[in-house]
Amino acid sequence: MLKIGEFYEANEIAELAGVKGVRGLQCGIFVNDNNRTTILIQTISKEGMTENYPNKWDEESIGVLHYCGTNKGQTKDISKQSLESKLNKHVNEAIFPIHVFVRYPEQYFQYLGEFIRLPKYDETLNIDGKDIYLFGLVSKNIELTEMIIRKIMSISHL
Q1: What's the whole-model pTM score?
Q2: Lowest mean pLDDT among 53-57, 92-96, 113-117
Q3: Is the pLDDT of residue 95 over 80?
Q4: How far is CA 25 from the centre of its chain?
Q5: Backbone phi and psi for residue 94, each to the nearest 5 degrees, phi listed first
Q6: Looking at domain 7-156, what is its CATH homologous superfamily?
Q7: Cα 7 → chain centroid
Q8: What is the DSSP letter of 144?
Q9: Domain extents in the chain
Q10: What digits encode the pLDDT tens for the residues 11-57?
Q11: How are beta strands 130-139 and 123-127 bridged, if at all?
Q12: With left for phi above 0 and alpha for psi between -120 and 50, is residue 22 left, alpha or beta?
């Protein structure tokens, strides 16, 4: 059983996500049909937040995460992400419970718990001519994750 705030190794996350080995953790959204779980991974690099998929925490509403949709499974010439692709659809419709992890540069993962889909916090960004969808999500355990989220937010402003 996962515990909020605990750290996990890449092989444990790969198993939970249902991917073969740690190389399978390249994407940020994983749907495991076997254990009926959706896993989101927010990656923090040594420079702070990644720019390709700028997942971000809401400055005003602690516990709210704006998580980028993925282009995986879509043609490269799209101008807007499809919310009907399997990964985006599972997040958008919260088909399975959504669990969030943060990947730190040292390749360990911290569990932030289960999140609830909140469309009122959705956003769209235009990055390199493509409309990227940011799903609004909120922690089910804000009191347990608040200090972790504040730490992540301070790292992302480096």
Answers
A1: 0.90
A2: 53-57
A3: yes
A4: 12
A5: 45, 50
A6: SRA-YDG (2.30.280.10)
A7: 16
A8: H
A9: 7-156
A10: 999 999 999 888 878 889 999 999 999 999 998 866 555 556 688 99
A11: antiparallel
A12: alpha
| Token pair of 148 as six digits | 């972790």
The token pair that represents 146 in the structure block: 């608040």
How many angstroms separate the Cα of 130 from the Cα of each of 54, 71, 82, 145? 13, 10, 11, 32
d(CA 148, CA 158): 16
Residue 150 tokens read as 């504040």
Look up residue 132 and give its two tokens: 């990227």
Q: How far is CA 104 from CA 19, 43, 47, 84, 152, in A?
A: 19, 6, 11, 30, 10
* C-beta atoms surrounding 135 within 10 Å: 25
Beta-carbon contacts of 95 under 8 Å, excluding residues fewer than 6 positions away, are 31, 38, 89
3-class DSSP state of 129: coil
What single string gives the DSSP state of each residue in 62-89?
Answer: TTEEEEE---TTS-TT-SB--TTSHHHH
